[in-house]
Write a structure and sequence with these properties.
By secondary structure, the chain is an alpha/beta fold. It contains 17 helices and 18 strands. The radius of gyration is 41 Å and the shape is elongated. The relative contact order is 0.06.
């Protein structure tokens, strides 16, 4: 006696009987229908293959000896079309060879003609039980299919593509052709519907429109799974067409005489999704198919939420990038303001020296002390030379072009030091340089690097303002193994508190009264733009050291590639 699982399976089992003798078809059909099976028959094996292409069957009960196509060939072709179909052979020409061939073809049973009716019942019942056990044990196979499906779905980048792909996979997996999928989420209040009248053609109609939350709640509140006769009798479709005339046009895709099945999923985050499929015949999909589709729909819902989060993340990242750019621009303005005041002060110092020497030269000329005049002319020339060197260094340091080009890092640091050394705050500070001559030229933005070094060295001068003998060390080194430039900027000031080192580059951190706190953020941004690293540490017993590493890229094309990779990594 069949167990409950087998009875349940039998009630939904569809059997296609193929035999060139009409009397055999009639007998087998009547017997199996009385057992609760859903039966279709044909005398022509060619017609049987067409039926298998358009409808889903659980079993093929076929004679072996038939015209046009023999039963063995029919079974093999049927399994190519529908791999899950089970085959039961009937024959009046039994032999060891045919038995072996039947086993090789994956036969569930082998029934001899003429057969007793009880033999046919037992043979089919045994096949149903065997297939039920196989399908129970094939849960691992289903999990593998779901895992593969999840990987495919999670690699889709937009919701339109996700809905079309999901509908296509659902239809093809169920051997169906017509259906639609609809989704709505609370974030955007957007209804999206994708439908197809023939999935094998790959043509989809996509409709998108706004739908308020109250209307969405009403439309997507449907029983699941549910079968209805014809699309117009489908509760979900009837509700949704009241909200959209465009969706109503999709009813032309469906055949009114065929059943539809509806599967719906609602997530806790108010994401609703409904799958509406047209079956090829009555109860084409069994209970296992429906459970699998429900799981797939839940995966689709998760994938859609993932896409929505990805879109939100992209927007947030774009805003963050804009904020970083604003900070860089703000720092440039601030740096220009500070530098302008210092430049004015330094130029005024030079002009005062020139003016004083000119006055003394005029006085000496009046008293005809010409020997002293030459001395003051030399002093004026010297001051003018210093002014020229100062303004030349200034022009190099203030170059604000942002394009990358080949840069001599050692020369850039020399120019920055020459620019800063004459300034008042650096007059009691010795800038000691130890530059590695083996360091090659590299692709870099000289404007941004000038700003980076200016910020750090300027901070160092402020830390040393109360010391009589301040020292700033500027060291470069070429790490050949990693092809990196290593820059060390250190001072012998009071030192950087270790507990503040981690947040120095991530917030508006400052230890200066009235400081705006953007300096180190901009330093970090500049280093990141060049694909490098920066850290700050305390030097024992006194002092602070900034360690900067920058990749040495000498090929402009390689530099462009590195920039694209850095850009992509930021977005990932």
């Amino acid at each position: 006696m069949p167990n409950k699982v087998d009875e349940k399976f039998a009630q939904s089992s569809r059997i296609l009987i193929v035999d060139d003798e009409q009397i055999i078809l009639n007998i087998a059909s009547d017997v199996l229908k009385s057992e609760g099976y859903k039966i279709e028959t044909t005398q022509d094996p060619r017609e049987a293959l067409e039926k298998i292409k358009s409808e889903k069957y659980d079993f093929l009960l076929t004679d072996i000896k038939m015209p046009h196509i023999d039963g063995m060939t029919l079974a093999k072709e049927a399994q190519k079309i529908s791999p899950d179909i089970g085959t039961i052979f009937m024959t009046g020409y039994a032999s060891l060879d045919t038995a072996k061939e039947a086993i090789k073809a994956g036969a569930y049973d082998y029934i001899m003609k003429p057969f007793e009716l009880s033999e046919l019942r037992k043979g089919i019942a045994k096949a149903v039980a065997k297939k039920a056990k196989l399908e129970e044990s094939s849960g691992g196979h289903d999990l593998n299919r779901l895992s593969d499906l999840m990987e495919v779905l999670y690699n889709v980048g937009d919701r339109d593509s996700l809905l079309k792909l999901s509908l296509g996979l659902a239809l093809l997996n169920c051997n169906l052709e017509i259906g639609l999928i609809a989704a709505w989420d609370e974030r955007s209040e957007k209804l999206e519907v994708a439908a197809t009248s023939n999935v094998k053609d790959g043509d989809f109609e996509v409709i998108s429109q706004l739908l308020n939350a109250e209307a969405a709640e009403e439309c997507f509140n449907v029983s699941s799974p549910a079968r209805n006769k014809g699309v117009k009798e489908n509760p979900f479709f009837a509700k949704i067409i009241r909200q959209s005339a465009e969706v109503e046009k999709l009813s032309e895709f469906f055949k009114e005489s065929y059943q539809t099945i509806t599967i719906a999923v609602k997530s806790q985050k108010k994401f609703y999704i409904v799958l509406l499929l047209q079956e090829n015949g009555e109860d084409t999909l069994n209970e296992r198919d429906l459970k699998l589709l429900s799981i797939v729909l839940s995966l689709i819902s998760l994938a859609a939420e993932n896409i929505a989060l990805y879109e939100e993340s992209k927007t947030a990242l774009s805003e963050l990038e804009k904020l970083h750019d604003d900070i860089v621009n703000l720092e440039k303005v601030a740096a220009k303001g500070v530098m302008s005041a210092e430049i004015g002060h330094e130029l005024n110092n030079f002009l005062n020296i020139v003016r004083s020497n000119f006055e003394m030269m005029t006085y000496r000329a009046k008293i005809k002390n010409l020997s002293e005049v030459a001395k003051y002319i030399d002093s004026i020339n010297m001051s003018l030379d210093q002014m020229t060197k100062f303004t030349t260094g200034l022009a190099d340091a203030a170059n604000l072009r942002t394009e990358k080009k080949m840069v001599n890092l050692n020369a850039l640091l020399e120019d920055i030091a020459a620019f800063l050394s004459p300034q008042k705050r650096f007059r009691n500070i010795d800038i000691a340089k130890k530059l590695d001559n083996s360091l090659p030229n590299m692709m870099a933005d000289s404007s941004q690097l000038s700003q980076l070094f200016y910020n750090i060295l300027n901070n160092a001068s402020q830390a040393l303002h109360e010391q009589n003998e301040g020292i700033i060390r500027v060291i470069t080194r070429f790490d050949k193994e990693n092809r990196e430039a290593v820059i060390e900027l250190s001072d012998n000031g009071p030192g950087f508190p270790p507990e503040l080192a981690e947040k120095a580059f991530t917030s508006r951190f400052t230890t200066k009264p009235g400081g705006h706190g953007f300096g180190l953020i901009v330093c970090s941004k500049v280093v990141n733009n060049h694909g490098g690293k920066i850290k700050v540490e305390k030097v024992e017993p006194h002092g602070t050291r900034f360690m900067i590493t920058l990749p040495v890229i000498s090929d402009p094309k390689a530099g462009e590639k590195a920039d694209r990779q850095n850009f992509a990594q930021i977005r990932v």
